[in-house]
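User:
Care to share a sequence and structure tokens?

Assistant:
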Amino acid sequence: MNSTATEKDELKMFLDGTFRTLDNVLTRQEAELRDREVGVVSYVGYGIVRVDGLPSIRADELVLFPKNLQGLVFNIDPEEIGVILLGHSGDLSAGTEVRRTGRVLDVPVGESLIGRVVDAMGLPLDGQGEIRTVKRLPVEQEAPPVMARDPVTTPLQTGVKVIDALFPIGRGQRELIVGDRQTGKTAIAMDAIINQADKDVLCIYCTIGKKASDTAKVIADLRQYKAMDYTIVVAATADDPPGLQFIAPYAATSMAEYFIAGGRDVLIIYDDLTSHARAYRELSLLLRRPPGREAFPGDIFYIHSRLLERSTHLRKEHGGGSLTSLPIVETEAQDISGYIPTNLISITDGQLYLSPRLFQKGILPAVDVGKSVSRVGGKAQIPAYRAVAGDLRISHSQFEELETFSRFGTRLDEATRKVLERGWRVREILKQPQYKPMPVAEQIAAMMAVTSGHFDGIPIDSIKEAETAMRKNVTEKHGDLCARIRSGEKLGDADRGILLGAAQEIASSFSKEEDHANR
């Protein structure tokens, strides 16, 4: 009995050793074969090359050109290989040698990236020296499986009243920012980053296809408001080859995944995915990919879904971190039903639509309440805010429709006039300048004052002044209440009484000032 068991163990050890030896031999032979395989460039285009040879090449493998120029295998056709360049073509010409690397594209990840500006390959662009990291992650990674995900229950405060009140965002959510050019899309993303200063949320800003001057302005603003202390900027500007613009959002997401695996919360901005789709279209046309599932436009859904599906809230046994994404997409002539916007709307958990009409009227942020939605964040909104702004979105949409209708009539009944007066004041409260994110306790105080009707008697021109007085009253006199709101406690009757009393006091003071002025 024992001798039989011993013989089985010895046989198992022998087979294990044999398999290990065979595996080592095959690995060595594959490496030798790879070293002997040399391809030749047959065609050089803008951002792409076609290569002859390399019979054992694999899809998405990294290849190396002279002067350390790298490329990514994109097409594998019977006669040739299509490669996208991850840098400027420089002195490349037909006949240049191409060598395999045997690995996929990866980027450096780690704490040393925080506060730095890097390109899509993780190389520094800020002139602050080399970035030393000990780990690298593949640019393309599978999204976490469903069983590894936790529900989105923790709010991510943007500091923007109209978003936190009407379209709250939770940590792990994907909320699309959509609108025409120059309507304030990047401004909302910047405010969200600046507001994370004391929230223990790491931020990554990924710019794709923007002008270098616009990118430099964003970086300067982040530095001015001390946001670079917890932010990584991944820049692929319009001057970069389309290959770098294409891989930039995937590289930025891999950098984020390093932190969420360690339990950190990360906010990532993709600015913008319209330029990302254009870069992919350019590569598809240059490589002569057939239209359909393999190229633009049929594959746009796939390239964006495999990117945004990586944003989630992980269960504790899988790290416990969260990746919240705010992708930005540009519309043309307010066409929200365009091909790329509708693709992204179907992938994400809601959208913030920025209206040029509101922007031109000076209603900033220009968020259109009727066309915007958050499908997840309501469950993550703090209880105090939910109690104050629970039905505000519906009532505000009704007010906007009533306002449009009232323009056709000259006489309004008393009830209609009151709805309009309240709505105008709510709209005035929701206005907010850029780079001025507001703490949640002050937001709730201002929103309760206007929705309760205490500010109905204050002239619209004085609403902002009354809001400032309300915020000052709450922060200076009721610090304990602010702390309870921030901690997620519900508003009790006594707390509501405090806020309503402060609102009544401020309304009375403005009423006295008006009476004095009339005299």
Q: What stands out?
A: The radius of gyration is 28 Å. The first strand starts at residue 38 and ends at 44. The chain has three domains: 15-104, 135-143+170-380, 387-518. The chain has a mean pLDDT of 90.
